[in-house]
Amino acid sequence: MGAITRKYQEAAECVVTESYVYAPTDLASGEAVRRVKVQRSLWDTGASVSLISARVARVLGLESIGKSGVSGYNEGVDVKNTYLVHIGLPTGDIVTNIMAMEFHSDEYDVVIGMDVICKGDLAVTNKDGRTTFSFRIPSEVEIDFSEKQ
C-alpha cells in the first residue's frame, strides 16, 4: 500500500516511471521469481489494458496465453500476443494476474493501462505550468475537484 508523486518542472507531455514485470508465479510460494526492471513505463489512461514489449516477454521467457485484437489511432485491428504477468509499481505494490498485450515501441517497454490504474487513485495537476503526477494504491478516497476547498 503505497504512493508515488513525480513533479515536473514544466507541463509534461507524458508520465513515465520505472516498474517491474514479473513472470506469473505465486509470489508467496517461495519459488524463485523471474522479473525484469523497466526504466521507462508509460502511464496511459487511454489504454484499457496494460502492454509489455516483445523484449520483456523474451527476457522473462513468457509464453503467450492467447491473442487479442487491438484497435487504436491507426487503421484496422492488429492481433497481438497476450501474457499473464504481475506488474510491480514504483509505489512498491505488485498488481497480480494482469493480462498484458504485446506491443512494439522504441521508447517504452511497458504501458500501464487502466486495468492497473483503476486499482488506485490517480491525480495529475498542472499548477503554474508544472505537472504533478500522484498515484496511490489502493484507492482511499474520492477526489472531486468540483467541490469547494
Descriptive account of the structure:
- 7% of the residues lie in helices and 44% in strands.
- The protein has a six-stranded mixed β-barrel. A three-stranded antiparallel β-sheet has the order 1-10-9, with no helix packed on it.
- The mean pLDDT is 92.
- The chain has two helices and ten strands.
- The chain is mostly beta strands and 149 residues long.
- Strand 6 and strand 7 (94-103) form a beta hairpin.
Walk me through the topology.
Blueprint: E1 2-7, E2 15-22, E3 35-43, E4 51-53, H1 54-60, E5 66-70, E6 78-88, E7 94-103, E8 110-112, H2 114-117, E9 121-125, E10 132-137
Parallel strand pairs: 3-8, 4-7
Antiparallel strand pairs: 1-10, 2-3, 2-6, 4-8, 5-6, 6-7, 9-10
* DSSP strand tally: 10
Enumerate the strands of the largest sheet in spatial order, edge to edge or round the barrel.
2-3-8-4-7-6
- Total helical segments: 2
- What about the largest sheet? 6 strands, mixed, barrel
* Class based on secondary structure composition and strand pairing: mainly beta
Q: Please report which band the strand proportion falls in: under 5%, 5-15%, 15-25%, 25-35%, 35-45% or over 45%.
A: 35-45%
**Cα gyration radius (Å):** 16 Å
Summarize the structure in short.
It is globular, with a radius of gyration of 16 Å. It is mainly beta.
List keywords for this structure.
single chain; 149 residues; mainly beta; 3-stranded antiparallel beta sheet; 10 strands; 7% helix; globular
